[in-house]
Amino acid sequence: RLAERCLPNAGFTAIATHDERIIAHVIDFTERHGIGRDRFEFQMLYGVRPQLQLALVRQGYRVLVATPFGTEWYFYLMRRLAERPANVLFLLRNLVKR
C-alpha cells in the first residue's frame, strides 16, 4: 500500500512488481483518483513476464524493463536467487517458456 501513499503526491512513482494483483490494484487506484499515466510507471525485470509487459504497454502504460548487465550481473542474479529460493523455479519456468 506504499503506492497509495506515493501516487497522490506531485512526484513520479515507479511500481516495481510482476504481481498482476498489485498491478491491477495500482491501475484501479490511479483511475479512481484521476492520477495520469504520465505520473507513474511499472518496472519489471527483462525476460520475466514479457506478455504482461507487452499487455501493459498496449493499454497505454509506461513499462521500464530492467536489464542487469556489466561485470556484476552474475552476482546480482545469484543474490536475487539466494534472497528467495522460489525464484529459482520461477526463473526456470520463464526460461523454458522461451
TrEMBL record:
Ranges of residues in domain Proline dehydrogenase: 9-90
One GO BP annotation of this record: L-proline catabolic process
Transmembrane helix keyword on record: no
Gene3D superfamilies named in the record: 3.20.20.220
Domain of life: Bacteria
Classification via InterPro entries: FAD-linked_oxidoreductase-like, Proline_DH_dom, Proline_oxidase
Protein name per Swiss-Prot or TrEMBL: Proline dehydrogenase
Source organism of the structure: Thermorudis sp
